[in-house]
Amino acid sequence: PSKKLQSKRLSVVAALDKLPATRHDLSSFSVDVVMLPPLKGSQAQMCMLTVKGRMEDKGTDSQWRKRLFHRTFILISPAPPDSLSAGWQIAISNDQLNIRSAPYAPSTSAPATAAQAPIPQPGAPGA
């Protein structure tokens, strides 16, 4: 099994605790929610929650590095019995986090516009 794949509560928390320090640009966040059909034979409601944005993480050299992240949660309600007994109405069935380098800063200048070719008029040469 993968060392990065965690499935038990304590191992998930331990893995999260090992992640580097981060700073997030909340103004860059984008959130999408999609309701999913219940699994066959299940009454549970599910939805997919996706969060995307910019962040920085601290490298081993203590320098902040610009990153882009994309995180997807599959949420299920009602929660499984062990989650309900802990007071949770919704449980995270799946959580996937993708992080990649953001090597460049977006340009603040207006994008260049394409030159538009002249439209020939009827009866003009080349029309």
TrEMBL record:
GO terms for cellular component: nucleus. InterPro entries: NTF2-like_dom_sf, NTF2_dom, NXF_fam. Keywords: Nucleus. It holds the Pfam family NXF_NTF2. It is found in: Nucleus. Residues 3-100 form the Nuclear transport factor domain. One of its GO terms (molecular function) is RNA binding. It comes from the Eukaryota. Residues 102-118 have a biased composition (Low complexity). The keyword Nucleus applies. GO terms for biological process: poly(A)+ mRNA export from nucleus. Residues 101-127 are annotated as: Disordered. This is Nuclear transport factor 2 domain-containing protein.
